[in-house]
Every structure is written in C-alpha cells, then in structure tokens.
Amino acid sequence: MLDFAGSVVCLADGFFLGRPAPVLAIEDRLLAGRTYLVLPVDRLPQGCDALTAASLAALSYDRGRPGAPGIAGGPRSPFEYVKADDGRTVIKVTPEFIVAAVTSKAGTAAHGRGGSEEDGGGESCGGALCSTPELRKHYEQLVGSGRERAWSPRLDTIKERKGRRGLDDFVLAVSPGRLSPVAVRLLGLEGEGKR
Questions:
Q1: How far is CA 45 from the centre of its chain?
Q2: Per the domain annotation, does 134 fall within a domain?
Q3: Which of 22, 109, 159, 170 has a 20 to 30 A CA-CA distance from 189?
C-alpha cells in the first residue's frame, strides 16, 4: 500500500448505502477468492461519511458512455436488500456493479468514444442518473441543457446619494396626514401639513 499513496483497498462486496466505504486497514490480510478494488481516495466519501448513490456514481470514470453501468433505469438493480449482523435490513451494492463502474474506463479507451447526448450517453444529465429517455427528458425540463447560455444575475444600477437622510427627506416621504396626531406633534410637523 505504500507504493499507492493516493489509493485505498476496498472489499468489493462490502459497499452498503448509508454506511462508510469498506476501506481495509494496512494490517488487514487479503483473502483468496475475494474481490478487492484499489480505488483513488478522492472518489470515495471522506472520513465517516456515508456511501450514497451520488458517491457511487462518482466511482465511474465515464458515466456518460453508452453501456456504462447505470444506477437507475437498468434491467437489473445494482442494489440488494440484505440483513445485517444486527438484524436490520440494509441496502447492499452488488459487487458486479462496483467492478463495472470502476473498470468501465477501459471500454471507452478501446472504442475511442465518449458519452455525448447524441449517442444516448446523456452527458449533460449525469449519464448514470439519466439512463432512460424519460429521465433525460425530465432532467432537461427541470435543469435545462448545459449548452444553453450561461446564467448570470440581472444587475441593476445602484443610485447613491451623498450625506444622511435628514428629517426633510422623512417629511417628503411620509405625509403628515398619514401619521397619528401624537407622531405629528413629536416630529414637529404641526404646521407643515397645511402647505
């Protein structure tokens, strides 16, 4: 592990939604017959952060490529409900999905294709999350296309005046007829309402 400083070793069948990523310690021994993954640290949730569908989508190098593993809309769900040791039901991410998500970059390099929207990849809507035409359509309606002009706020000119606003400005802004008789007397506006 010292040779791969920016990477961690994870057990492929140890990914559960809502729980930390299954990172092995340096002193852990690898067992024959088990599938392990060497993953870059920056692609996993940090510290004790729970694994989410978004962090799973971040595992894939090329989510937009057609044929890349998708989280939603696929023929077979990448999630399974299993009982944990404490008896609670947890959502397990299948090892096949994790392996396919991590190793899908090789398929893109071999075919020389990226994931553009024209060839069904849906790059503008996150690829793995918009894996069906209906999801892509809903995404475009809610978020809009990345090719549209960039949003910028409407900027209005700010007019500034020198000095503080005095009592004269207050008198012009509020007519004495709208003030109570007590407020008119306190502000000294008794004779000014008859202009």
A1: 13
A2: no
A3: 159
